[in-house]
Specification:
66% helix; transmembrane; 209 residues; mainly alpha; manganese; EC 3.1.7.2; metal ion binding; MESH1; Hypothetical protein af1432
């Protein structure tokens, strides 16, 4: 759910984002090195996605989605693993920006790079093929990648419930909810809280059609 704007840039208040990361880290009792890693990941994601916005009418800066995914992991999913949270902040950099897996590995380590790779679609493939591969591959992913995928799906579904993306009709909305249900079915047993939250938002919206 991303597109590039015609604007030269999107102003991101990095100081505010960094303060948010520090506050979250204090609650989770992260080490100083963990805090630095998360701030680095947040800044990197904000810079790489600076020309991108979400598809809602408000054209929300894309970094909001990435922080939202990380926040879901920590505040709802109970995730305290720094690598997983950093990967959540970076999970769309390979797929949606000119960032390579090697670059992520060099800057953030092999583990985080691997998680991000698992969460990335191959944009050279058609949308239909990519969606089918998400269903087929979800169950084979690592536990940490599955956590990021659950939080990503939950944030996207809540966004879709809150505001219809520009150009979407009811049929496309229904299709997205149905497809998400298939993907999440392959992630069962990863995190009961996140899975229940996803089931709730899907069922609440599918009954409208």
């Amino acid at each position: 759910m991303v597109h590039e704007t015609d604007f030269e840039d999107i102003t991101i208040n990095l100081d505010k984002l960094n303060s948010l990361i520090v506050s979250m880290a204090e609650v989770l009792f992260f080490t100083g090195m963990d805090v630095l890693l998360l701030i680095k990941a947040c800044n990197f994601a904000a810079e790489r996605h600076s020309l991108q916005r979400r598809k809602d009418v408000q054209q929300t800066p894309y970094i909001n989605h990435l922080i939202g995914v990380a926040n879901i992991l920590t505040s709802e999913g109970g995730v305290t693993d720094c690598a997983t949270i950093a990967a959540a902040l970076l999970h769309d950099t390979i797929e949606d920006t000119a960032t390579s897996s090697q670059e992520i590995a060099e800057l953030f380590g092999e583990e985080i790079s691997q998680i991000v790779q698992e969460c990335s679609d191959d944009k050279s493939l058609s949308s239909q093929v990519r969606k089918q591969l998400q269903i087929e591959n979800a169950a084979t992913h690592s536990f940490k990648a599955k956590l990021v995928q659950l939080a990503d799906k939950l944030h996207n579904l809540r966004d879709l419930e809150r505001a219809t993306p520009v150009g979407w009709n009811s049929a496309r909305i229904k299709e997205y909810f149905l497809w998400s249900k298939l993907v999440v079915s392959q992630l069962k047993g990863t995190n009961e809280v996140l899975e229940a939250a996803i089931d709730d938002v899907i069922n609440r919206n599918l009954c409208k059609f």
